[in-house]
Amino acid sequence: MQGSRLRFFLVQRFLTTLQFRDYRYLWLSSLSASSAAWALIVARGWLVYDISGSSAWVGVTTFAAMIPLFIVPPVAGFLADKLERRRLLTYVFTIQLIHNAILAALALTSVIDPWHLVALAFVNGSARASQMPVTQALLPNLVPPKHLLNAIALNSATMHGSRLVGAGLVAPLLATVGAGPAFVLCSGFYVAALIFSRRIESTSTGEIRIDESPFESFTAGLRYVLRHRLVRALVVVVFLHCALTMSFESLLPVLSEEDLGAGDGGFSYLMMALGAGSLVGVLGLATLQNPSVRGRLLIVTGVVSGISPIGLALSNNLAPALVGAAVMGGSQAAFMAITAAFLQAIVPDAIRGRVMSVYLLSIGGVMASSNLITGALADSVGAPLLLIVSGLAFVVVIGLSMTDVTLRRLFTKGEVAGKA
DSSP string of 155-218? Predict the structure, then answer.
C-alpha cells in the first residue's frame, strides 16, 4: 500500500507529463541524445587535452562544438516551423549517429589528431543546434498547456541530468580502455534516441509562407524578440548568464589536473556532480505551478548561479569541488528551465520555432566565444580567477535586472501577459 501511494505521488506531482505517450518518447529520445552529448564532451575534452597538453586546444574544440549554435539556428528554426517536426528530429539523430561512428573509428585506430576532434565537434554541434529548436517547438504540442512547466522541467532534467549518466558511464572507460570505446558508447545512445524519436506519432508544424526564405524566417523571429519587451529582457539576461556562468567546460580539464590534483578522472567526476545537481534542480521545479513563486525562484537561482562558481574556484581538493559543482549545476539548470517555461508561455506556436532559434543563437554564440576565450586565458591567468570574476559579474547583472519594470514584475509576480 505504501509503495502504491509513493508511485501515485511521484506520477501525479513529479512525472505528470510522462503519462502522455508521445511526450514520453520525446523525453526518452532527449535523455539518450543528451547522455551521448555529455559523454562526448567529457571524452572529447579528455582526449584533446591528453593529445595536446593544452587547455587552449580544449577551448578551440569546445568552440567548434558550440559555434554552430550561432550559425545553425536560423535555418533550424525555419525548418522547425516549415517541416514536420517529428520527422526532422529523426534526421538530426541519424546525422549524430553517423558522426559518432566516424569519431569512434578514428579513435579506435589511433589515427586521431586534435584537428579531427575540432572538425567532428563542429558536425556534432551543428546537429545539436538543429535538435534544440525542433524539440522545443514540438514539446508544447505533446502535453496540455497546464502541464507545460512540468514537461519543460522533465525535459531539462534529460539535458542537464544526463551529465550524470553520460559522464558516469564514460569515466571508467576513459580510465581503463581509453576514448575509443567511450565514443562507441555514445553511438549506442544515439541509436536509442533515433528509435525513440521514430515512435512519436503526433504531427506538428508551424505557420510559414511558402515563399519565405530562411533569412526572412529568422528576421521574423528576431523582430518578435526585439518588439516584445519582456521576451527581449529575458533573452538579454539569459545571454549574460550563459556568458558568465555557463561557459566553463574548457576550464574543467585544467582545473582538475592542475588546481585540484584529481587527474583525468576528476574531469568526469566534476561533470557528474554538475549533472547530479542539475537533475535535482530541475526536478524540484516539476511540481511548481504558482507563477509568482516561479518568478521569485528565478532571481534566487540566478544569484546562486553566480555565487556557486566561486565555491568551485576556492576548492583545494576534489571533495569540496564536487559540492560546488553540484550547486552550480542545480542553480544553472533551474534558472534556464524557469526562463524557458516563461518564454514558452509567451510565444505563440505559429512562430515558436523561429523565436527559439533566435534564443538559441544568442546563447550558443556567447557560450562558444566565452569557452574559446576562457580556454585561452586559463593557461596564463588560471581557471579559479576566471570562475570568481565571471560569477561575481553575473550577481551584479541580477541586481541590475531589477531596475527593468517588466523583469521586476516577472520576478515578483510571475507576470508574462500583456508585455509586448
Answer: HHHHHHHHHHHHHHHHHHHHHHT-HHHHHHHHHHHHHHHHHHHHT----------TT--HHHHH
Read off the pLDDT of residues 78-112 as tens digits, 9 standing for 90 and up: 777 777 888 888 999 999 999 888 888 888 887 78
Residue type, 177: V
CA distance 290 to 184: 44
Low-confidence ranges of the chain (pLDDT < 70): 1-14, 55, 160-161, 163-164, 175, 206-212, 214, 249-250, 257-267, 286-289, 415-420
Tell me the residue length of the chain: 420
Q: What is the pTM of this model?
A: 0.68
What is the model's pLDDT at position 243? 86
Distance, in Å, from the CA atom of 352 to the CA atom of 354, rounded to the nearest integer, reads 5
Domains contained in the chain, CATH given: 18-413 (1.20.1250.20)
- What local confidence, expressed as pLDDT, does residue 196 receive? 94
Look up cell 554552430; give the residue. Answer: 68
Continuous segment of H or E residues that includes residue 370: helix 352-378
Query: What is the residue-wise DSSP string for 259-308?
Result: IS--HHHHHHHHHHHHHHHHHHHHHTTTT---HHHHHHHHHHHHHHHHHH
HEC-encoded secondary structure of 27-77: HHHHHHHHHHHHHHHHHHHHHHHHHHCCHHHHHHHHHHHHCHHHHCHHHHH
